[in-house]
Amino acid sequence: MDEPLYLKVENYLMGLIENMKPGDMLPTEAELEKRLGVSRTTIRYAIQILQNKGCISKQQGRGTFVTAQPYEEELSRLQGFAEDAAKKGLITRSVVIGCDVILPNEELKDALKINDKDKVLKLNRVRYINEEPVQISVSYLPVNEIQAMDWQNIDFSSASLYKSLEDSGVVLATGEEDLEVDIASSLDAILLNVDIGFPIFVTNRLVFNDKGVPIEKSVSRTRGDRHKAHIKLKR
């Protein structure tokens, strides 16, 4: 049986991508039409498949570009974004949007087991991998449990939150996560450089110390084309 035309285009593009770097531009649809002798519709279908796989991205008015490989999260380990990414040889940095002390709402009081007057540190960051924004993370920490951490003088654009906690004597022991899928809001679109409605992978995490006391509640919103989850199963 002959190979479907769209698959011919897809395989040809994958061959090009293997020898290109993230950010490199692929040939235009017109160029591919001439090279491969197939219709523009077939080319667009193949491009859409590769875009859905996260291999390429289309930018209106600019062209089609090779993307970086998705960030694969190891769900069986309690570790921070930077720690996990560094083990994979990825270069990370953060832009701190806010680092403020707030009073808790009902959701935070329930999750962190605190009362109305207990203050909470809210740390809001955009996380980058290889200079590309991939995740918005917001961490909430009960101030009473992190008093030994000099957070006012820590540069969280480069410092690891979990390492800073451990350096201050906090023992991070266990955690739990809820995972769901959402679509990009207008704020997501601006901070992550995606379109409104783009797939977003949402992680809600709760971390406990060695005494079973909640230390962090966090919400992370990661670009759907930059996230993979790896879970080891045993029976």
What does this structure look like?
- The chain contains seven helices and ten strands.
- With 235 residues, the chain is α+β, with helices and mostly antiparallel strands.
Produce a short descriptive summary.
The chain is α+β, with helices and mostly antiparallel strands. The chain is built from 7 helices and 10 strands.
Radius of gyration: 21 Å
Q: Tell me the total number of β-strands.
A: 10
Largest sheet: 6 strands, antiparallel
Task: Kindly report the average pLDDT value.
Answer: 87
Q: What class do helices, strands and sheet pairing give?
A: alpha+beta
Helical percent range?
25-40%
Strands of the largest sheet, in order across it?
4-5-6-9-8-7
Low-confidence stretches: none
Report the portion of residues in β strands.
Answer: 25-35%
Distance between the termini: 41 Å
Global geometry: elongated
Per DSSP, the total helix count is 7
Order of helices and strands: HHHEEEHEHEEHEHEEE
